Amino acid sequence: MTEGLITHPYWWEAAAPRDLPQAPVAETCDIAIVGAGYA
Questions:
Q1: Contacts of 38 by beta carbon, 8 Å cutoff, 6+ apart
Q2: Mind listing the pLDDT tens digit for each residue in 23-37?
């Protein structure tokens, strides 16, 4: 690897991930979208 290797997405510099409170999940749904499109 190189010295300048960055191991996190660049947008974390402006909006780092944070812990959010747990929310209840519905038992059923009409539509479910799985995945975020990050590759």
A1: 9
A2: 998 999 999 888 876
